[in-house]
Design goal:
By secondary structure, the chain is mainly α. Helices cover 40% and strands 7% of the residues. Helix 4 packs across helix 6.
């Protein structure tokens, strides 16, 4: 507990947002990766759908849980999520996947979905380059949320 308090204090003094638990993936396990076939032009096409690109076999999802030390969980506790979402050109490789909680507060998979949608919109309206959006979400999706969506109430 003392370590968490010290980490939170250090983060506050550094001007960063402290996060704990399942909020952010371990960057050594999940640095993120992109699919070169998913260009901004393709992603922003009116006919684009993520379905054809959403191909994560159960064996890869099981590996993501194992890499994060999650041996048991209830249905609905986690989503094996793409760090760089498919909406902004993420890939299905294990380096882009981690078990993200649905239940943690204030940060969870539902909240990250709002950021993913916002980044997709900003890329498609030309406000952000695809590469910049990918970098922002891969580096620290919570900081990107504050920057592009706003504060959590």
């Amino acid at each position: 507990m003392r370590t968490l308090i010290v980490a939170a204090l250090a983060a506050a003094l550094a001007g960063t947002v402290p996060t704990f638990g399942d909020d952010l993936p371990d960057a050594t396990l999940t640095p993120g990766c992109t699919n070169p076939a998913l260009t901004a032009k393709k992603l922003c096409s009116k006919s684009f759908r993520t379905g054809p690109y959403r191909n994560v076999p159960q064996s890869r999802k099981n590996l993501a849980y194992k890499r994060y030390g999650i041996t048991t969980h209830k249905t609905g506790d986690y989503e094996v999520d793409h760090l760089i979402s498919l909406e902004i050109g993420g890939c299905n490789d294990i380096e882009n996947l981690w078990p993200q909680s649905y239940t943690t507060t204030p940060w969870n998979a539902h909240v990250k979905d709002a950021l993913e949608n916002r980044l997709h919109k900003l890329v498609c309206d030309g406000t952000l380059t695809l590469e910049h959006a990918q970098s922002e979400i891969a580096t620290d999706w919570i900081a990107a949320y504050y920057k592009y969506v706003g504060s959590r109430k």
